[in-house]
Amino acid sequence: MNLKSSIIIIKTHVFFAFFLFFILTSIYSQNRQITAFPRLDSDPNANRFNSKKNSYTWTDLAEISLWASGDTSLVNLEKINTAVGNLLNSTELPSSNKEKAEFILQFLHTILRTYSLYQTRVDTVFTNGVYNCVSSAVLYMILCESAGIRTSGVITKEHAFVMVHIDGQSIDVETTNRFGFDPGNRKEFHDQFGRLTGFSYVPAQNYRDRQTINHLELISLILNNRIADFERRNNYFDAVPLSIDRAVLLLGESLSVINEFYYTDLFKDPRKDLLDRLINYGSTLLRTNREEEGLRWAMAASARYTDNMRWQEFILVAANNRVVRLIRERKIDEARVFLESTRSLLSDLNFLQLDTIVTDAELINRANQSTTAAEGDNVINEIYAAQNAGKMSERRASELITLTVQRTAASLCAAPERNWRAAINYIEASLSKIGTNRVIEQALQTYKANLAAEYHSRFAAEWNKRNFDEAERILNEGLAEFPNNRQLLANRDLVNRHHTR
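Above: the chain sequence. Below: its structure as tokens.
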């Protein structure tokens, strides 16, 4: 048996359910097919069974165990009734409770046939005799209770069994083994004439981590294992209703707070398990890029089963996934519209986290589209405003300012004009405002080198056409601006040699 249930990595939280419904309906659901979500109401039987409050007869336990197994017919209930009748009417049934409890284990194994780790349902036992520790323990509990023997369930990290309470003693019973009564004691067997024929010995288990549970909790392990089985098969949809039924079975419809110290790593709080299943299902929506449906699910489920911190974390993940995907698709405006539409659903801190992502993308987009000095200056001013508003760090602001200056300068000197002067003037003006910036200063030197090269090209064109005076004028203009440029100094040597001829 596997008593564990898997938990997907995504946590969650909703503040204003009605407003969330209005937003998601008006924005996302237009012209889209609405996904049918898992059932969020509990099965009425779950609360009916809970309402008995531990005053359960063996017939109650039989009915509850079949319901937990998913059996809604009366066929297997009648089979349990027949088994109880055969047990109680057996001429071999001992008179002492201890011997009777051991006999019941032997009787149970006339019903059980084959052990299977995941076969947790009681109805299946009566179909093909396949069982695991939970289904066999529940049936043993029912048979013992029918014979007037008090029982409790016991769980460990990976196992479940029964404890019988007889004459002031509590005795373990490993129900998966027909010789599992009071493990650790040698069992002698006699023939019909009383002669010893042999013995069997089941070693006692050293269960350091064990917890005693009541009848309803033992039966709830059937639901727990069925939930785990659904999730092993990635069927998170069907795991949700069973989780709701299990929580209500154990706690009632109100799911009211009870002693938090009762629940341990062995028998977890069914409310926490329920939230895990609700969020696991929501996570499957997010993994398939259905963030809008994930938010609708959060609205519907959180209104019924509240946990503000976890639902808020889920909403943050859903909104973040949607925002990041839109940004990657270069739909920056859509990302902003989406974020603003979900603003009321997010805490201030979480909204700021996503607003920072969108603002960053918006500024990068505007920097890439900047074509004039005025546009570049406006983007830089917005970057400073975002930094002052706490939307980005000083380092990130510096990176975006560098990007903005570089892209704007590149636009100013784009082909075919190649206006190196405009780029140089813009960079120099920007540096006077933002201060030292090594990357931008290197870009400035590159543009100046390009302008000097342009002077050289103009000079060479006129010189080759033998327009010596115009060539010398262009050269002097270039040297006035770039007196140390090697190419222009070489051109001056050429002119000087020409004059000395």
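Strands lie at 114-115, 130-131, 150-155, 160-166, 169-173, 186-190, 196-201, 211-213.
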